Amino acid sequence: MAMSAGAKGEDAPMSDINTTPLVDIMLVLLIIFLITVPVVLKTVTLKLPDVVFEPTTTKPENVLLSVRSSDTDGDGEPNPESTGCEVYWGQTPVDSRQLLEKGQAKLEQLLKDIGGPQNITEENFPEVHIRGDVNTPYQCIGGVIYTMQYAGFQKIGFISEPAAGSGTLGRL
């Protein structure tokens, strides 16, 4: 920073550069780069679903869906190479049209039971809990999520099993 001491006179122009705006800009750029560079440098390495176990409270009105790859080789087990999906509402297999219809029917029945949309609260609105097989392609689970959101459900969560011996480490 430059400062004139009055040796040449009050009206003489200052020839020193004001560095304060330059320092401000450099600090802002430094902060931006410190935030963005770690995000850009990370590679996408995924192994799902390793999760911390957090117990859930299942209400009777919640929808429990199970999603897995189709059994294309006939051994009774899902085939990870399969492009098809099997979706179960509870224990009943459903296709995407039936899933949408059942979801909409469940919400319509809820509206009748509670007396209209003005009586909906977070406590009485059902959630969708999805149990997805680890070998199921994301397009299957993503399709179920989209269908249930389209039906009108607001909360969609995933149910997983904790690793053996992990205990409950969830938030209290």
Structural description of this entry:
There is one protein chain. The protein has 172 residues and is an alpha/beta fold. The chain has helices at residues 20-41, 96-114, 138-151, and strands at residues 63-69, 85-89, 92-94, 128-132, 156-158. It has a five-stranded mixed β-sheet with strand order 3-2-1-4-5, covered by helices on one side. Strand 4, helix 3 and strand 5 (156-158) form a beta-alpha-beta unit. The longest helix has 22 residues, at 20-41.
Summarize the structure.
It contains three helices and five strands.
Keywords summarizing the entry:
3 helices, five-stranded mixed beta sheet, 32% helix, elongated, alpha/beta
The total strand number stands at 5
Instruction: Report the average pLDDT across residues.
Output: 76
State the strand order across the main sheet.
Answer: 3-2-1-4-5
Low-confidence stretches: none
User: Which geometry do the CA atoms define?
Assistant: elongated
Major beta sheet summary: 5 strands, mixed
Radius of gyration, whole Å: 29 Å
Q: Helix share of residues?
A: 25-40%
Secondary-structure element series: HEEEHEHE
Coarse structural class = alpha/beta
Oligomer: single chain
